[in-house]
Amino acid sequence: MLLPYWDHSGQLHHLEGQPESFADWERGKELCTSRQGLHNAVEAILNHNIVRTRCLALDMNTTLDVTLDNGRAVIVRQRHQYSSDPILEKWALDKFNAEIRLLRWLKDNSSIPVPAVIAVDYMDSNFSIQEKLPGSTLANKWHFLPLAMKDFFISDYVDIVLELFRIPVPQCIGSALVEVKNGTHAITVGPCIGVNPCQSCPTIIEDVFEYVRFFVALKRKAVMDMEPDAQQRAEETLSYVEGSIMTILKSFNDPCLFRCVLTHGDLHTFNILVNESGNVTAVLDWEINSIQPAIFSASYPIWLSDDGVRDPRFAANTYWWDESPEERKRICAQFETIVRERDQQYYNCLVAGRNLRSAADWLTDQDPDPGFDNMRSWATAHLRS
């Protein structure tokens, strides 16, 4: 299906969207040994046969939309296993466990629409069975929503991010864990689980300045693979960006900006489901959540942002936008207005932290940028040391 996307110069193109299913299967068709094992394990837990599956994702997990012989539909998420690599295996298991526990906590303690966890298998297959919530991915729905419905969606979306913003969490930086304390399940914090082991942190981070130094250390890993002249430019850029961020942080005296809050971490259009009316029906994929300072957490909808690595003047050539420049600006302004009406603290963090979040995005971005020249161009335009 062709969908509208906009390029760096604001020109409209129609490109192939992500398929709703990467592979369909029906009972009677042959399965590979590993997938057959997964089907057998799911059927044993649910006491029903699988008659049909649609493969929704294959990247960090295998995600299946499963239909049973009684007509019931569930979602099965199987983590990838790395038996020959203990570092990858620990990372994969940690994020799998963290997501399951957080989903259960959110289901019991919030009104955020998350799927119920029906069952978890920790044996050979390592999968969870989750409730299938109604709706379609925002990625496949956004372009077809009428203007008024997009505005309604933004209002609904604000309610969800504000509820997440207000959940009490420990005041240090890392990934959210859920543990039993005094007979009840409570959110605690553990070392940050990143999008891969290299972007994870082995320890809990105590303050915002240490958090920035962690970002800088992540980015510095890319320097060693550059040519000598590019290495020098990259180091100069890192020093400039780090110094600028530290100066900005030291200029703030509002403690609310540094209050740690729960953050989804991957709130793009494939992880949001909406119905025909534009209501948010599900927020999915919580495995790289984080607890971080509010000034880094409060943010504009990522698919509408022109900030940081998504700034059309400096973004990678492979980047496309879901809306025209004018519409992105209009909806982000509407987002600001609604947030300001409903939560002044979130609004203050949103506005004050705009360049800080952009700088953090540059420091964690993994797209090639020899000499960090694109990051330096952005920093020169937006930061002052």
Provide structural commentary.
The protein has helices spanning 33-46, 86-109, 138-141, 147-166, 208-220, 228-250, 294-297, 325-342, 344-352, 354-364, 373-382; strands spanning 2-6, 12-16, 24-26, 50-57, 61-68, 73-79, 117-121, 127-131, 136-137, 175-181, 184-190, 260-263, 272-274, 280-283, 290-293. The chain is built from eleven helices and 15 strands. The longest helix is centred in the first third of the chain and has 24 residues, at 86-109.
Q: Quick one: biggest sheet?
A: 6 strands, antiparallel
- pLDDT < 50 runs, ≥5 residues: none
Order of strands, main sheet, comes to: 3-4-5-6-8-7
Return the average pLDDT rounded to an integer.
Answer: 95
Q: What is the overall shape?
A: globular
Along the chain, the helix and strand elements come as EEEHEEEHEEEHHEEHHEEEEHHHHH
- Portion in helices: 25-40%
- Integer-rounded radius of gyration: 22 Å
**Which class best fits the helix and strand makeup?**
alpha+beta
DSSP E strands, number: 15
Share of β-strand residues = 15-25%
Total number of helical segments?
A: 11
For the record, give the distance between the C-alpha atoms at the N and C termini, rounded to a whole number: 46 Å
